[in-house]
Amino acid sequence: MYRSTLWLAAIALTALAGCKKQEEAFEVLQPPAAPTQLHRHWQLPDFSLIERTGRPVTSAELRGKVWVADFFYTSCPGPCPMMTSRLSEIHKATRDEKDVSLVSISTDPSKDTPDVLKQYAAKFGADERWLFLTGEKESIYTLANKGFKLSVSDEDGTEREPVTHSTKLVLVDRNGTVRGFYDSQTEEETQKLIQDIKRLLKETR
């Protein structure tokens, strides 16, 4: 009887050990946990541009906000309408978030005057949280290429498409640090951006 009891106990321990090994092997196969914070890329330089209302807007005004930026122009026949549509989705998804701003910067400032931007913004129902900015061409191109590190150029432009520019949307945190780049041409990336905005809203400075 005593030997039978020991034999049954040994079988039970062997079974438990086998289960533990299987669990450990299963855990090894699990994907790594998602990072708790978005990567911090670089600090944006200070800038000053003109909003569609005609008032000046500086980078200091955006401190304390989580914001998304893009570079576009209103007469663009290519990807710009899609970019603005994606921002419109984000605008609606964050309608109750006062600490979220959208910033659309024109890459064709000679044509995109404040009045032109005002009419364009109205088509997408933009409120005061969504800024449409214009200004000096040199300042805008320097900000895009060196600040955001997004390609913007009119050297190879055509009459139909005078400006070539990146189609990325850029996520910026409350301190003016770039935290992510997103493809404006896909719905999946737009949804990821909306989720990342929510993550940054919960992040402490």
List keywords for this structure.
alpha+beta, Glutaredoxin, 7-stranded mixed β-sheet, 5 helices, 20% strand, disordered N terminus
Describe this structure in words.
The protein folds into 2 domains: 1-30; 48-202, Glutaredoxin. It has 5 helices and 9 strands. Residues 2-33 have low confidence and may be disordered. The protein has helices spanning 2-29, 80-93, 114-123, 137-148, 187-202; strands at 48-51, 56-58, 66-72, 100-106, 130-134, 152-153, 164-165, 168-172, 178-183. The longest helix is centred in the first third of the chain and has 28 residues, at 2-29. The strands form 2 sheets. Strands 2-1-5-4-3-8-9 form a 7-stranded mixed beta sheet, with helices on both faces. It has a two-stranded antiparallel ribbon with strand order 6-7. Helix 2 crosses helix 5. The protein has 205 residues and is α+β, with helices and mostly antiparallel strands. Strand 8 (168-172) and strand 9 form a beta hairpin.
According to CATH, what is the topology of the largest domain? Glutaredoxin
- End-to-end distance, in Å? 68 Å
Strand order of the largest sheet: 2-1-5-4-3-8-9
Helical proportion, percent range: 25-40%
Would you list the SSEs in sequence order as H and E? Answer: HEEEHEHEHEEEEH
Number of strands: 9
Put simply, the count of helices is: 5
Would you identify the CATH architecture of the largest domain?
Answer: 3-Layer(aba) Sandwich
Tell me about the largest β-sheet.
Answer: 7 strands, mixed
Structural class: alpha+beta
Could you list the spans in which at least 5 consecutive residues all have pLDDT below 50?
2-33
* Top-tier CATH class of the largest domain: Alpha Beta
Q: Tell me the overall shape.
A: globular
Task: Tell me the CATH superfamily of the largest domain.
Answer: Glutaredoxin
Radius of gyration from the CA trace? Answer: 25 Å
Number of domains as seen in the coordinates: 2
Beta-sheet strand percentage? 15-25%
Average pLDDT over all residues: 85
